[in-house]
Amino acid sequence: MTAAAKKILEDALALPDDERLELMAALSDSFEPQPTELSPEWKAEIEDRIGQLERGEVEPVEWEQVEAKIRATLARH
Questions:
Q1: Do the Cβ atoms of 6 and 66 come closer than 8 Å?
Q2: Average pLDDT, the chain
Q3: pTM for this predicted structure
Q4: Model confidence over 4-25: pLDDT tens digits?
Q5: Whether the Cβ atoms of residue 17 and residue 77 lie closer than 8 Å to each other
Q6: Can you give the residue ranges of every domain in the chain?
């Protein structure tokens, strides 16, 4: 890691949790998606979860609810 990158990391780690989370998301979004081959186990897991949704065994959760829960958890720490 370059000195400049280390300085950025040091500054980022000094940010409050919610700002670090936003920074992490922005950095993650900056990457181009890389095509990957899913393992048979992951394919089976995905099919199982789709089946659970279709059978009404589980309810989907909106991203905003998940994000709010993450932020609330981080705020407590």
A1: no
A2: 94
A3: 0.45
A4: 999 999 999 999 999 999 999 9
A5: yes
A6: 16-29+38-76
